[in-house]
Amino acid sequence: MQGAGLELVKHYKDTAFMGFVEVAKNIRTIQGLFAFCRKDILAYQPDALILVDYPGFNLRMAPFAKENNISVYFYISPQVWAWKANRVEKIRKFVDRLYVILPFEKAFFAERNYEVDFVGHPLLDVIDINAINEKESKTKIALLPGSRKQEIGTLLPLMIEVSKQFPEETFEIAGVPSNGEGYYYSFNLPENVELTMGKTYEILERSKAAIVTSGTATLETALFNVPQVVVYKGDWISYQIGKRLVKINYISLVNLVLDRKLVEELIQDEANPDLIGSNLRALLTAKKTRSNIFEGYAELRKKLGGPGASARTAELILAHLQNHQKQVI
Asked: What are the C-alpha distances in Å from 107 to residues 65, 117, 316?
């Protein structure tokens, strides 16, 4: 958004805390950000507030906006289909229109008598799927340990241990520039593990397989046609709370969109070097496994719709806002 000319007054990454424990530790920082945003919104006096993802924060800002007669639009639905489905009523009450990016979300809300707009996935605007093929000449194995230090610190050591099982292969870590190179090198990278900062898509383009932390990266990896093993491991307390609250069959977006298990998911205790390594070996050596994954990825791309999600959303918001203003007049 900053690149499109918007003024950035705060960056969400400064307050992107993961897990129940981390949120509790930083509650004062979060509360301070709420106060700052409320003050900034009142000073700016917008006609509309467009909330983009980040539901833990945005769903708390929506009621404030409505109280001040500001239209509210939400782009990228909170994952109410995964947990806390009762948030649907809050969205209905405080959000004028909701725009969803996953095909199954429209049906989910329809079952709850709430009409939403499926606009397609914005990743299709940045990844040219027509230029990607199933080339077997790719040589690297991508390591995508996430973007936050909290998850990287847990999952990158596991990925490094896996790399030691494959001394003949070259692994490439997708580093996030904001973390600094020194942070990644502090994990004592083996000789067959390279670090490349800020070029995740370039890494995926030259990778024949990947180990990926659960999240949007699983979908990005699929769109680049790279067979993957999905891993996730959190702190014990957050995991115990989460598994009692989350109501989904899969953790990767690939499997969620397809509504079946296409890529392997290794969670918590199963996210260990032995299991990750054995699944990675299958991706590298079993032609049938790779073929099945490529076929599944093709189905996935069709389900996600075509490019233009953000442009469609902007047009829909503008049309709804103009219609609303006419009704007021």
From this structure: 27, 11, 19
First-residue to last-residue Cα distance in the chain = 31
Q: What local confidence, expressed as pLDDT, does residue 249 receive?
A: 84
Give the DSSP letter string of 112-124: TT---EE---THH
Residue 53 and residue 149 in one domain = no
For residue 289, how many other CB atoms are within 10 A of its CB? 15
Domain shared by 97 and 160, yes or no = no
DSSP 3-state percent helix, strand, coil across the chain (nearest 5) = 55, 15, 35
Instruction: Provide the pLDDT for residue 235.
Output: 64
Q: What tokens were used for 256? A: 């969620």
Q: Is residue 139, in this structure, part of any structural domain at all?
A: yes
Neighbours of 180 (CB within 10 A): 13
Angle at 84 between CA 214 and CA 237, to 5 degrees: 55
